[in-house]
Design brief:
519 residues; alpha+beta; Metallo-beta-lactamase, Chain A; Nonspecific Lipid-transfer Protein, Chain A; 3 domains; eight-stranded mixed beta sheet; 13 helices; 26% helix
Length: 519
C-alpha cells in the first residue's frame, strides 16, 4: 500500500488491486466562498490525480467524508473520468452530500452507515460516522495488502477509538486533524491577550486529542492532515499570523507530540503535498515541490495571496440603499423561517442581533421566546449575542449559493456574546437549515433524557456522572481528568467541574457529578 498525500485531508492510496482517492480538494477557488485555501498550495497536483485515475488499470474508488467544501470539491470532481468512478460516502440523515454527487452522475455511489464495511478488490473499506446534530462527518478505515490506514480527517470520534482499535487490530497508519476550524475565537471581539489565551487553550486541547488518539490506536506512523487551511482574502489574512492562533502548522504539533509521547513507538512524519508513504515500512519519498518551513511561512502566504489580489477587489462594492433594504427584508424572512421550526426557542432568554458590517443602520433583533424578528437601531441590553457580516456575504446564503454552515465557515463575520458563555442552541440556530432545526432540538432532548450513569476517577476520588455529554452526546466514560477536578469530554473537549456537581465551565450544562466517597 502506497499513500500519496495530495494536500489538506486528501490522499491517493494505491494497493495491489485498487486505487482509492480520499477527500481531494484541489480547486484553485478554495472553499467556503474563497475564504479558505489549501496550505501548502496543492493546485499543481490536480493533473497528477486526473492522470492517475485515467490511466488506472485497477478498480478506482473515491471516498468523500462529508459535504464541507474543503473535502467535497465538486469543481475538481467534474474534471475526473466520472463515468468510471465508484464513490463511497457516509449515509447521513441529511442527504446533501449524496444529492450533490448524484448530480455528477458517477458510475456508482455506495452509501455506508456507521461501522458498515464495503469490500473492494483485495481489501475492504469501513466508515465511521459522526452525525450528532451540528457536526456531520466521517472517518475511513482502509484494509489492504496486510496494512490498515485509519483516516479520521476532522471527524471527532475519540470516544470510539478504543473500541475501533480493539475490533480492528493493529493500525499501520493514522491520520487526523490537529488544527482548528471554528469561528471561536477566530471571529469574536476579544482583546489580543484574551484571544491568545483562548487560542492557546484550544490549540493545546487539540494537540492532546491527537496524542490520545495515537496512544489509543498505537499506529506505526502518524500523518498530520486536515489542516490548517490558509486565508488569502485581505479581510482574513491576519488570521494566518500572530503569536498564537487555532491554526497551528505541523511542526508545532510534532514538537508537542515528541515530548508528550516520549516513550511511544509511533513514527511522526511531516509531509508535504506530493509526498508518498510506504504503509508497510513507513518510508517517505519526498516528491512534493511546495515545501514550506516556518521561517518562510509569512512571505509564502503573502506571495500566495498576491495572486488573488484582483479577485478579492471585485467584492468590495457596498450595496445601494435599495439593495440593502431588500436584503434586510429577505434576511428577516429567512431568520423567521428558522424560528418557526425551532422547537426549543423558549429556552433562550437572550436576544440575538444580526446586522450588516458594510452598511450602518441595518440591524435585526431576534427574540426567541416570542419568535419575532424586528428591525432596530441599537443594542440596549447588556446580555445578548450579536453577529455582523458584509451584506454581500449574507446575499450568498439568501441566494442559495452557501448553506448557513458554509457561511459560518467563511469567517467573514464578527461575533460578540455577553456574558461570554457558549450556547449550543444559538450555535444550532445559526448553523442549521430550517428543515434541520426540529431534528436538532429533539436530539438534544434525547441526550437530556438519557439517564445512564458512569463512574470515573479524578484527583483520587470516584464520581458518578451522566455518561453522555450534554453538548452533543459524546461518551464521557472515555473522557479524562484535568487538574484533578475537571472532567473533559473526549470529542469536543468540554470541561465539567467535579467539585461543583459537574457544572460545565465551557458552555451551559451539567453532568450531575456525585462524589461517591461522601456517600
Amino acid at each position: 500500500m502506497q499513500i500519496t498525500y495530495i494536500g489538506h485531508a486528501g490522499f491517493l492510496v494505491e494497493t495491489e488491486q485498487a486505487l482509492l482517492v480520499m477527500d481531494p480538494w484541489l480547486s484553485p477557488e478554495g472553499a467556503f466562498d474563497s475564504a479558505w485555501f489549501q496550505f501548502p498550495c496543492n493546485h499543481h497536483l490536480a493533473p497528477f490525480v486526473r492522470e492517475k485515475l485515467r490511466a488506472a488499470t485497477k478498480k478506482v474508488f473515491v471516498y468523500v467524508s462529508h459535504e464541507h467544501k474543503d473535502h467535497f470539491d465538486p469543481n475538481f470532481l467534474k474534471t475526473l473520468p466520472i463515468d468510471d468512478l465508484t464513490f463511497i460516502l457516509p449515509e447521513f440523515r441529511r442527504n446533501a452530500l449524496r444529492a450533490g454527487l448524484a448530480e455528477l452522475a458517477p458510475a456508482a455511489i455506495i452509501s455506508c452507515q456507521h461501522g458498515e464495511e464495503v469490500a473492494i478488490p483485495g481489501g475492504s473499506v469501513k466508515l465511521y460516522l459522526d452525525d450528532s446534530g451540528i457536526n456531520r462527518d466521517s472517518g475511513v478505515l482502509l484494509r489492504a495488502d496486510g496494512q490498515t490506514f485509519l483516516n479520521l480527517n476532522d471527524c471527532k470520534l475519540n470516544d470510539e477509538l478504543s473500541s475501533i482499535s480493539k475490533s480492528e487490530g493493529p493500525i499501520s497508519i493514522l491520520s487526523c486533524q490537529f488544527s482548528g476550524a471554528t469561528w471561536h475565537p477566530t471571529c469574536y471581539e476579544y482583546e489580543p491577550e484574551e484571544y491568545q489565551a483562548i487560542s492557546r487553550k484550544k490549540l493545546l486541547n487539540k494537540f492532546e486529542m491527537v496524542a490520545r488518539a495515537i496512544e489509543t490506536t498505537s499506529p506505526r506512523v502518524y500523518l498530520p492532515s486536515a489542516g490548517p487551511a490558509c486565508f488569502l482574502d485581505p479581510s482574513l489574512i491576519h488570521l494566518n499570523f500572530g503569536p498564537v492562533t487555532i491554526f497551528p502548522r505541523a511542526p508545532q504539533l510534532l514538537q508537542y507530540l515528541e515530548k508528550r509521547l516520549a516513550n511511544g513507538g509511533t513514527r511522526l512524519l511531516e509531509i508535504m503535498p506530493g509526498d508518498a508513504i510506504n504503509a508497510e515500512t513507513g518510508q517517505v519519498v519526498e516528491q512534493g515541490t511546495e515545501r514550506v518551513n516556518d521561517a518562510e511561512f509569512e512571505s509564502y502566504i503573502r506571495a500566495y495571496a498576491s495572486r488573488y489580489g484582483d479577485y478579492f477587489k471585485e467584492r468590495q462594492t457596498p450595496p445601494s440603499e435599495d439593495a440593502a433594504q431588500e436584503m434586510l427584508a429577505r434576511l428577516s424572512a429567512a431568520l423567521g423561517r428558522k424560528l418557526a421550526a425551532f422547537e426549543l426557542h423558549d429556552r433562550l432568554a437572550v436576544p440575538l442581533y444580526f446586522g450588516f458590517s458594510d452598511v450602518s443602520g441595518y440591524l435585526l433583533r431576534i427574540d426567541f421566546p416570542s419568535r419575532t424578528v424586528e428591525r432596530v437601531l441599537t443594542i440596549p441590553e447588556s446580555d445578548y449575542y450579536s453577529l455582523m457580516t458584509p451584506s454581500w456575504q449574507i446575499a450568498r446564503v439568501l441566494d442559495g449559493e452557501l448553506t448557513w454552515e458554509e457561511f459560518a465557515l467563511t469567517f467573514r463575520v464578527r461575533l460578540n456574546r455577553k456574558p461570554d458563555v457558549y450556547q449550543t442552541l444559538i450555535q444550532g440556530f445559526l448553523l442549521l437549515e430550517p428543515e434541520d432545526m426540529n431534528w436538532f432540538c429533539r436530539r438534544l432532548l434525547e441526550i437530556e433524557q438519557n439517564r445512564q450513569r458512569t463512574t470515573i476517577e479524578a484527583g483520587g476520588l470516584r464520581y458518578s456522572i451522566d455518561r453522555y455529554c450534554p453538548h452533543q452526546g459524546a461518551d464521557l466514560s472515555q473522557g479524562w481528568a484535568d487538574e484533578g477536578r475537571f472532567w473533559t469530554c473526549p470529542r469536543h473537549r468540554w470541561q465539567f467541574a467535579l467539585d461543583k456537581e459537574g457544572e460545565c465551565v465551557t458552555g451551559k450544562g451539567s453532568i450531575h457529578a456525585v462524589c461517591l466517597e461522601n456517600e
